[in-house]
Specification:
The chain has helices at 21-49, 53-63, 72-78, 83-95, 117-137, 147-160; strands at residues 69-71, 99-103, 111-115. By secondary structure, the protein is mainly alpha-helical. Strands 1-3-2 form a three-stranded antiparallel β-sheet.
Length: 161
């Protein structure tokens, strides 16, 4: 926060200090990256694969399960979507033959999403595009940084959010 020349900054609670110039620069850069990066990754998938990043995320999350399926509500959470948004997306992916929706055996009200062989093949087809996009837009800019510490810091931030 910056104050105008005529206005003093508000008083801070005890023990709270303003960001340093370096911290402010990191915060602003991180904020820009969080807005721009999803758009860039999505644009590459759309252009080269005619697939949205959300579609890719659903297929990827399903491919990573131990049991071969996920409850729709869990899949929505994993993909950062509302349940109604996930339901619409799953219906689209089902119409393409990439996903099947089946009733939960343990809860008749719930539904599971299951990755089909065709869905796995489509994910494998799109993966090189996504990988190239991630390397170009992210990792090309992180050379020389400690990836283990960076991943740990991002994980800690995500856990506390």
């Amino acid at each position: 926060m910056s104050a105008t020349a005529s206005e003093p900054p508000p008083a801070l609670p005890e023990g709270l200090t303003p960001l340093t110039a370096q911290e402010e620069a990191v915060m602003r850069a991180l904020s820009r990256m969080m807005l721009v990066m999803p758009r860039a990754l999505n644009a590459d998938l759309e252009r080269e694969q005619r697939m949205s990043a959300s579609e890719y995320s659903v297929l990827r999350n399903l491919s990573e399960t131990q049991c071969g399926f996920m409850r729709m509500s869990e899949l929505a959470l994993a993909c950062d979507m509302s349940l109604s948004g996930m339901t619409r997306l799953a219906a689209k992916l089902e119409s393409l033959g990439y996903v099947k929706r089946i009733k939960c055996q343990s809860d008749a009200r719930g539904w599971n999403a299951v990755l089909t062989e065709q869905g796995l093949a489509r994910l494998r087809e799109a993966w090189p595009t996504h990988l190239a996009s991630v390397r170009r837009h992210i990792f090309a800019h992180l050379e020389g940084l400690d990836m283990e510490r960076l991943a740990a810091a991002f994980d800690a931030i995500a856990r506390e959010a």
